[in-house]
Amino acid sequence: MARKAITGNGAIALALKQVEPDVMAAYPITPQTEIAQNYAQYVANGDVVTEYIAVESEHSAMSAAIGSAAAGARTITATSSQGFALMWEMLFIAASLRLPITMPVITRALSGPINIHCDHSDSMGGRDCGWIQLYGEDAQEGYDNAIQAFRIAEHMDVRLPVMTMIDGFIISGAIGPVETLDDEQVKEFVGDYVAVNSLLNVEKPVTVGAFDSLGGWYFEHKIAQNRAMENAMDVIEEVGREFGELFGREYAHFKTHEVEDADIVLVAIGSAAGNVKTVVTKLRAEGRKVGVLKVRTFRPFPTEQIREALSGAKVIGVMDRSDSFGAQGGPLFTEVSAAMYGGESHPQIYNFIYGLGGRDIFPDDIEGAVEMLEKAAAGDTLAQQRHYLNVREG
Amino acid sequence: MAKPKEIANKPERLTGGHRLCAGCGAPVAVRQVMGVCPGPAVVSVSTGCLEVSTTIYPYTAWKDSMIHSAFENAGATISGVETAYNSLKKQGKIKDDMYFVAFGGDGGTYDIGLQSLSGAVERGHNFVFVCYDNGAYMNTGFQRSSATPQGAWTTTSPVGKESAGKQQNRKDLTAILVAHDIPYAATASPHNFKDLMSKAEKAFATPGPAFINVISPCPRGWRTPGDQTIALAKEAVQSCYWPLYEVENGKYKINYKPKGDKKTPVADWLKKQGRFAHLFKPGNEAVLADIQDYIDRKWEELLKKEECLA
Ligand SMILES: Cc1ncc(C[n+]2csc(CCOP(=O)(O)OP(=O)(O)O)c2C)c(N)n1
Ligand code: SF4
Ligand SMILES: [Mg+2]
Fold this sequence. Notes:
heterodimer; A: 2 domains; four-stranded mixed β-sheet; 16 strands; B: alpha/beta; Rossmann fold; binds thiamine diphosphate; binds magnesium ion
């Protein structure tokens, strides 16, 4: 193990290098580009056995990844924003073919208008494409999640693709400390890849992606896919626990800070969770009963565990870094609300949308949100459920 | 080339029982290509008639491994498969020699799949791409593609007071592939199976990408009797609507040159197809003349290319 000063992208590229998959297909896009470049350099230097396909688009990146994974190769790609959107069609197909592709997503706002900075409209837009989604707060989590993704995706009870998110620029481009593992530790942790129904098995040819329409098994296939998602719930935890036992950093579906006796809990995802934690620590020192729950696993959504963890809260503030046009609130908000609806306690739930297109979020903004929630906790129900933080008026 | 009889006696690699229409040109082309494939293959097929009719879950007509994922990406998909093969082979994880083939309809090749094919060819993957060109999106009910010939009725180039069918000429896709400096490109027709199969053999033997464009009559979309498929393919070649030629490392060779009146008027061929019926009503003479002019110009151009680049 070593401690390195490295960018989020650099850490993820390193994780992928240490896993050393058979094939990478990638196309550059800000802020992911550094991963595509670093990996191409590893290949050029002969550091890895990986074959690199410098595809002509992200649609082809995912299509080639699907071909490669179906051919029994451990396969990766990485993307952001428009590239993610261009892959859209193929994301669903990768999941439905049960191909354990892994993909770091360096989150960035979707056009239009064009904007290269961070928000979660790309990955959140893909929340129902059948991929497992793990969100990291910082470069360390980006690195650790990128490694664990292989174990989760390839687990025989799962066999689903996994995307691991870090926030564009804020984490991907910032240099920070990362505890890296040794190559052998990573290789041993992920283990050898065992392909299932490979196209390249000449003893047993297979047809992949058959036509499955009326009178077919489409419906049952979809149910099987969802069952694999359910199975992933335990597998993600097992893998996170084992990672913790071996390397000292344990992972679960989410992490709480000062939640147990809190009247007010903020729920956050991605890098802002760290900012919220700082504010919570400060407010706690002032005697205010605030906590934060940081979501790591968004798909499958740990509904019951989150409901349980939030059952003591009077008021919940859900922070979304993407909006959902015409819906009741952002994606994390609707998910948390649905989870709480099924419980005994019925806390008030509000939504704070922040950071679209890379807009900064300051401690004051978070404190402002807490103040609103405190009013609500005191019985003064807020007029609006959805609030936007740090926006110009008018 | 192996004798046709020997090839015919080999086990089928696309079995009967699939749901393509009687008289469809596509499976004929596929069987001729796969009949000379020298070893086990992985086949990638774009969404279209061929794919949906040969893989009705839980059945498959393919004896080789086959992958379909979407409409526009047969080229990208097979590049992924081929790269996986290279990686695993290099690492000693697989032993067998395998071949990589993609089949795309004209929609999946000329139109929506052009980028993915272009990328795969430019990157130099070792695969054979076969376009079965039936001149429209047949699977979705006969819509125009950029391979649809001028004057043809389709449901999105309909015939009406203001329109005599498709107004534009075809895209010259084979020329576009040649412009990639692809090591091997050819046109072929299922009526001349010897020619088609020897081209497929060359394509398989070519290191790197190879492309074959096969005319593939569609009785449903062309509005022709199912038993005329092979005759119609033949006449397409004789009229020079579909010249047979190949380009090997930049060198052109025309495989069939109709001399004198062996080159039949294209109107004779059009007349046999319901999709052109409106052209034979008074008032459309100019369209017919345009079609003939275009074919003659392209044929002259091809002869010159051969002369200069033989
Ligand atoms: C992205 C996308 N757009 C449209 C379609 C609908 N579609 C399926 S097959 C097809 C036409 C196929 O035409 P072609 O490639 O010529 O094959 P053919 O059916 O003629 O054999 C279309 C438009 C699709 N499946 N995917
Ligand atoms: S519609 Fe045409 S291309 Fe499609 S299966 Fe029938 S004959 Fe073949
Ligand atoms: Mg077609």
